[in-house]
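User: Let's play a game. I give you a shape written as tokens, and you guess the letters that built it. Ready? Here's round one.
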């Protein structure tokens, strides 16, 4: 017996006699030489319910079972499936594993197959965690592209005309990330760049590039081997504050070579063609649905180069593309001009609003005598009510963030709850009637009066005041207040922000309470009329944009015969 030989060896070396349990028949027991160290702890596997060390082979199935599907153990599982299909029962593992070991593998198999077919991890946009570094190879084995049925699916496009074909976007363009450019890098003259802010600008229609959108940086910050974008290329914004802006891009229709700046994705054509047809295609909601369907409602949406590489475009013949572009250029030009005129009217109305507010709160309006008014520090008439709370107990309360406030006019763009905005961090608790002021980028001048109790972002200040809140809101919208806040915040170049101490030291021209009521009455009446005029112009713009989108979609999908030109 092996136990007797081990016992005799120990007695020969002067060791004390020990009682050993006889090894099972047919089992091979390892003999460790005196003075040698064990490579494993004696009972490392017992706590997992596995066999003793002498019978254990391989690694823990729950911890390393994924490797068996993709790696060396996958062969035994595939062999087991073949034997079961042939009616030969469960085979023994080819690597010496017992049936009990095989049962562990087959119990884990359904779980592992779910991992193989799981969707790719998409970081914070989908809520899935990023893969751990030690399992990087495993996640690289998970299929990243879509299935054949998804590739051939033209549901987003509709009926495919004869001679048209669907191609992956990456087969037509070289897709890459833009260079890092900050506000501090911008200079008056240098190398032209376009950042994501210019892509979302109102001046960008998506079908051409305006010189007002081009910024300049020093050639020294351009990385080596970086290729500029020339005519026929695109610059996509990689971030957007709303789902509507996901897919916004600039089409380069001139011979100016431009670099893609911060938070952008560049598309460089692989062949020198006029790609304005794709500019019209990219503007349709149907094509953008390929990007938006993978995004989750978060504070900022991200569209990475990987997302664009997985999209597809419909490519008509070259002569059809030219006829579609000529048709849309002629039909969209008067629509674009009409939209520009109405937006100019809105800009003039907003400028008139600022002038009226600034003029009135300064006491230069009829019925006001500012000789009895006094200058005071903001901290002596108002107070920031910092009250950070966990959002768990306020899921159905009103939630207000800087993105939900219109700039410069004190209007609330949308209302949502804490649950709908997916708030997880601490927010300020405010009450109805409080003044909510965005401390980030004070020159945007985002301030409102809370319509109800709720939570606001930590980037905002809930403010209480000893004066009338409506009057203080109007004063905070005036040019006098905005200029003071801008001067103290502009020193923070990357992210302008005003802290509580700086806010408290701003000066305010405070009238008596009776004059405050007169100011509120005058500005409420005048601003209501301005709001009505702005709403009418926005309704006209919305109808024009809807007509333009419909016209573009029917042209780029072949539903309109454009071969005859305009």
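Assistant: Ready! My guess for every position:
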């Amino acid at each position: 017996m092996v136990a007797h030989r081990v016992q005799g060896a120990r007695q020969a070396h002067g060791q004390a006699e020990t009682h050993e349990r006889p090894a099972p028949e047919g089992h091979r027991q390892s003999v460790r030489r005196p003075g040698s160290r064990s490579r494993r702890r004696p009972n490392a596997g017992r706590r997992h319910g596995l066999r003793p060390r002498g019978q254990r082979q391989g690694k823990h199935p729950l911890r390393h079972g994924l490797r068996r599907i993709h790696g060396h153990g996958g062969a035994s599982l595939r062999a087991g499936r073949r034997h079961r299909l042939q009616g030969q029962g469960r085979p023994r593992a080819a690597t010496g594993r017992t049936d009990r070991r095989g049962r562990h593998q087959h119990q884990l198999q359904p779980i592992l197959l779910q991992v193989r077919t799981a969707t790719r991890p998409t970081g914070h946009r989908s809520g899935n965690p990023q893969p751990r570094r030690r399992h990087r190879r495993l996640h690289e084995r998970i299929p990243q592209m879509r299935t054949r049925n998804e590739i051939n699916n033209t549901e987003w496009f509709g009926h495919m005309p004869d001679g048209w074909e669907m191609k992956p976007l990456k087969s037509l363009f070289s897709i890459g990330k833009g260079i890092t450019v900050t506000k501090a890098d911008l200079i008056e003259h240098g190398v032209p760049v376009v950042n994501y802010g210019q892509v979302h600008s109102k001046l960008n229609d998506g079908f051409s590039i305006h010189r007002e959108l081009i910024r300049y940086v020093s050639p020294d910050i351009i990385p080596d081997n970086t290729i500029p974008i020339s005519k026929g290329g695109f610059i996509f914004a990689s971030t957007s504050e709303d789902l509507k802006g996901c897919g916004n891009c600039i089409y380069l229709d001139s011979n100016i070579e431009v670099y893609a700046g911060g938070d952008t994705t560049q598309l460089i054509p692989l062949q020198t063609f006029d790609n304005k047809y794709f500019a019209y295609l990219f503007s349709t909601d149907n094509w953008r649905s390929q990007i938006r369907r993978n995004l989750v409602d978060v504070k900022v949406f991200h569209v990475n180069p990987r997302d664009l590489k997985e999209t597809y475009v419909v490519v008509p013949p070259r002569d059809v593309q030219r006829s579609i572009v000529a048709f849309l250029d002629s039909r969209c030009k008067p629509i674009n001009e009409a939209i520009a005129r109405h937006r100019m009217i809105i800009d003039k109305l907003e400028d008139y609003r600022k002038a009226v507010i600034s003029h009135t709160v300064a006491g230069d309006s009829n019925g006001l005598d500012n000789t009895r008014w006094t200058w005071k520090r903001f901290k002596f008439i108002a107070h920031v009510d910092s009250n950070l709370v966990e959002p768990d107990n306020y899921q159905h309360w009103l939630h207000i963030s800087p993105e939900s406030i219109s700039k410069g006019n004190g209007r609330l763009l949308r209302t949502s709850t804490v649950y709908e905005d997916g708030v997880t961090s601490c927010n300020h608790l405010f009450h109805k009637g409080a003044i909510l002021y965005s401390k980030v980028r004070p020159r945007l001048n985002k301030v409102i009066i809370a319509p109800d109790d709720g939570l606001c972002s930590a980037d905002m200040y809930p403010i209480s005041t000893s004066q009338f809140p409506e009057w203080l809101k109007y004063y905070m919208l005036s040019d006098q207040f905005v200029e003071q806040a801008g001067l103290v915040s502009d020193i923070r170049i990357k992210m302008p922000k005003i802290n509580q101490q700086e806010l408290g030291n701003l000066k305010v021209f405070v009238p008596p309470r009776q004059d405050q009521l007169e100011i509120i009455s005058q500005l409420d009446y005048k601003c209501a009329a301005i709001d009505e005029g702005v709403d009418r112009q926005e309704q006209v713009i919305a109808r024009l944009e809807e007509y333009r989108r419909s016209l573009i979609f029917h042209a780029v999908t072949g539903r309109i015969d454009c071969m005859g030109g305009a």
